[in-house]
Sequence to fold (253 residues):
Amino acid sequence: MPANHEALVSKVAFWLLLTCIGSAFVPAWAGMDMMRGGFAMISFCVFFAIVAGVTWLVFRRRARILDRFLSGRDVLATWQVPPETWTRHVAVDLEAEKQGKKVLFLITAFWCALIGGGFALFADEGGGIVALVLAGVLLILVPFAFWLPRRRAARLARSTASVIVGRDGVLVGGELHDWKLAGSFFCEAAIDDSTDPNTLRFDYAYLSPRAGLVPVEVRAPIPPGKEAEARRVMETLNGLPERKPLPAGDQEE
Fold:
């Protein structure tokens, strides 16, 4: 079974939080001139204390969920996936990820071209600069759109070929998806028998301060002979009282 790396991140974030809180008092203890670096150091420490605190809270929650999964508590199904099935699943998952990232990139490129072109054509001053900045944004996004799916697939291929499904989330290989964090909610589970291997799909969403409601689709391979169990898991998750169907306008393609 995968190791609980979420717990390690939680512990590191906790000690960073304590370090930043303690460091915020150093200027006062050391008698530093607040106008010559004291306030700057305090502000720096407070900012990173907030970041470390949020990281600690999030990963502590994820570590507890993963710990329950790895110990067999609150688990609906645990599957050990045969190597050949896992290899085919990684390939199917990569194609789906590439398609999703490509669509998002094309949408972003369309708006960048529309806005940048509009500024370049109609703005009296600075329009060309805006167009160049947006073109630079697209260049930065290219490796993220086309390299990240391959990097994720390589990591998934090296991970433990197992699936653990619970009421609060799903662990596919070493990748934990949790729909019980603040701002997250479960939408739907469905079986896709058009892929080889068949997959159990989990749709959930979370609220992002920048992007609003962000839908997420997770695909887990169904090992041979586990189709009936996968259907029972699907029915159990779709019967959860806290399930919220995703609005039609926010559903992924």
Remarks:
- Residues 83-122 form the longest helix (40 residues).
- The radius of gyration is 23 Å.
- Residues 76-250 form one domain.
- The mean pLDDT is 85.
